Structures are given as structure tokens and as C-alpha cells.
């Protein structure tokens, strides 16, 4: 889970809390703080510099610690966990739902993990091991193993009496009961609305629906989010490769997937991680960002090297130095538009090898139209500025070439990077910039060498 941004009303409450903290009224601050929802407290913690964060964390009631930790990003969670002793951590995470515990236990020290496992009963330990058997970004990693199942042959009246006995044991966000046979294989779901409105003497088999397809545990998180979106699901059963029920996924977990994906796409374009703490130590942040700065420096040197190959041409026609950034900039913008569209298509499952060729031709056609339009505009400006129609022709052709190359790179790069196991959101922008700079400079300066010198 991740903490959502607060609303305007929440902003006012946070401002009031900050004011109370500044005044040193710790008891009042503690009351105000613990009246917030765990996700709101997590957002408040992420919004504080380290020292203030420690102060706020110390005011939180211990009973909320575990749930709050599940909403924090990885960096902040790691910082707070390092400040807690073994007893506090075991007590904090012991009462969590299985899916939340599975996410959190991987960030705990090994000694604490063993203590947590010892504190669980046999059933919870087995459920936790089931959840941990799958990658975090898979359906199996997202699912909660706490489910309510019924058999198809029992009557609805029996089901109603069974639910009354459960009382508070009914899992959160329960909109249906999962129907399984005696061997635990998934058959369908019984919606609570059908349970309440059908004749109590009917059997589950008569009232259940077969329309809800189970999600394989091996599906990726993106596929799960797409299924929820397309079918307007609130919950969905998860099965193994044989169709045996393993657990269920709820819409709140899917919302976390969508939010994290959006943050990843947004921050990835700047070479940042969505798990990074905004108030992380200076040296840690500097070290993390140094890698992409270094990569960018190498690509900048490559572009500079290309320019250096045409040093004599630039010295003879000074106007070229003035106009070079125009060519590179136009290609960069056009390429970024196509790249962003392609990355989004991959993220939501709309782009694949089956339709990539169609997208490529479409983007090349768009680039061809725009290149002609803007080549004419730039050529006219250059001709008026420098009074040289040859320079105007050269820059017009160069822009056309670079926009077409940018569209080609923007459409192909995401799929190529994903095939090699490289995140397109992180690496796509850097590579695209290199392509558009190099192609733009070679086209512009190369044509100028041929026709102007």
C-alpha cells in the first residue's frame, strides 16, 4: 500500500497538527495524530524531514504501527523500522492481514522475520508462505489468502447462518463468497446481493454466477489492474495453474498498483525511483542520482563528439551554431511524444508485438506531416534571419530527417528495452535524447558540409 495525498480538509487538519507540534503541546498533538487514519498518518510521516518524522512517529499509538508501516514508501519504512526494537516490530506486524504482512516481512531483519513467523499460528504461517511464494508484482503477491468459501450443494439458508457465526471474522471488502468444490477448486462466486434476495431454500449452485473468471496467480500486476478495470471488479479470486483457489485480490490493492505505476512512469522519466524518500540524506540521494547523471554525461559527450567532426564547417558558416539547437530540440520534443505514448501503451497492455507495426507507421505518418509543416516554418524564419536560402533548405531537410528518426526511435525503443529487461520509463528518455541529438546534428551539419562549404 501507499499513502494517498490528502484532501483540502485533510490539509487543514495537517496544518493544525503542525501548529500544535511547533507549540510543543505533545499530548494534544498525539490525540490529533491518532485520530487520523493510518494512511493519513503515513502521508504525514512522508512529508516530514527526518528529525520531525522521528518526533511524529514517537507520538503514534503502538497499535497502529503495523498498518502505518504498510502505507509508507520503502525508504521511509526502512528508516522507521531501524529505530524499532524486536519486540515492537513483532507486536506491530503480528495483527496485519496476510497480504500486508507478506509485503512488509520482506523488509524486516532476518532475526525479526523468524520471530514473527514463530508468533503466528499454523494456519496463518501456511497462508503467509503461500503469499511469499509469488513475486510481489504478481497476482499471487497481491492476493490475500483470507477468504470465505462455500460449497455449491448447500442452501442459502445454511450460508446465512454460517455468516452470522463468523460475525467480525468476515474479511474487509467482501462483496461475494467464493464457491469451491470439496477439493478446493474454484467454481464461481455467490454475490451477497443474490444471497439476500434469493429464496433461502435455493442452493448455492442455483444462485451463484459463473461470469467471474479467476485470475491466475502468475499474472502480472498490470494484467490484474486491467482485468479489474475492464470488468468493474471489487474483488477477484486467485487460482493456481490447476484451478485450485489460493486467495483473492481486492480493489484497494489494485488502486495501489495503479498509483505506483503512475508514480513510476512520472518519476522514471527523471531517473528517480517512486520508493525514494523526498527527505532522504543528501549523500544517499546524490549517490542514487549520480548514475543517471553519468549516463547523461556520456551521451552529451557523444553529441559533442559528433559536433566536433564538423568543426571546420561551423567555423565557415557561423549561422549553423545558432540553428543547431533548433534541430535537436524539435526532434527531442517529437520523439518524447511518441515515446510517452508507447510507454503508456505497454503499461496498460494496449501495445504488443501484434500491433507495434501499425503504431510505428502511424507515428511515422504523423511525423512526416509535422516535419513538412514545421520545416517550412523554420526554413522561412532562417531565410529571413540570415538572408540565405541554402541555409533555409538545409535546416528544413534536417528537421524533416530528425522528426522521422525521432518517431522511429520513440515507437521502437520501449518494446526493445522491455525485451532486454530494461525499464523503458527509466532508460527510454536518455537513449531517445541521444538519438535525436546525434541524428539531428549529423543531418544538419552533414548537409551543410555538402551544400554550403
UniProtKB/TrEMBL annotation:
Transmembrane segments: 290-308, 314-343, 364-385, 391-413, 425-452
Cell membrane listed as a keyword: yes
Known role: Acts as a magnesium transporter.
Family matches, as SMART domains: MgtE_N
UniProt xrefs under Pfam families: CBS (PF00571), MgtE (PF01769), MgtE_N (PF03448)
Protein name: Magnesium transporter MgtE
Subunit structure: Homodimer.
Family listed: Belongs to the SLC41A transporter family.
Subcellular location: Cell membrane; Membrane
Membrane topology: Multi-pass membrane protein
Listed NCBIfam families: mgtE
